[in-house]
Design a protein that fits this description.
single chain, Glutaredoxin, 2 strands, about 55% helix, elongated
């Protein structure tokens, strides 16, 4: 979508770790934000999802090393309470807005249902929103 609508679409990522289901969900979210401090959020995010069956504190370290992060800085950032607070705020915002699952995709605060969660479906919704906003 960003490539198709470079001036019209903005991507905003919010954390919503399913902590009741996944033991390491909160840690993974915080680790991704720690990677973001070094400009590697999306790379780290993608590696987390590639390794979702084997997440652990050790795996967080392995991914950071694999991506060439400054490990001292990464570990300092991992323990920064501001990152955990940022994840908690995202979770609170999601609950306040009725979001119950992940992933949830919104276009101008409108949740996309399954049949629109592909390129052509999203494109239809975005085109409709762009027309509505003109």
């Amino acid at each position: 979508m960003l490539g198709a609508y470079p001036n019209e679409v903005k991507l905003v990522f919010k954390n919503f770790p399913l902590t009741r289901i996944h033991k390491f969900a909160m840690g993974a979210a915080v680790a991704a934000l720690a990677a973001n401090e070094q400009g590697k959020f999306w790379e780290y995010h993608d590696k987390l999802f590639e390794n979702y069956k084997s997440l652990s504190h050790k795996k967080f370290q392995e991914i950071a090393q694999e991506l060439g992060l400054d490990m001292k800085r990464f570990n300092t950032d991992l323990s920064n309470p501001k990152l955990r607070q940022a994840v908690s705020k995202d979770m609170d915002d999601a609950v306040k807005n009725g979001i119950r699952s992940t992933p949830t995709i919104l276009v101008n605060n409108r949740s996309l249902r399954n049949n629109y969660r592909n390129f052509s479906g999203m494109k239809k919704v975005i085109e409709k929103e762009l027309k509505r906003l003109k």
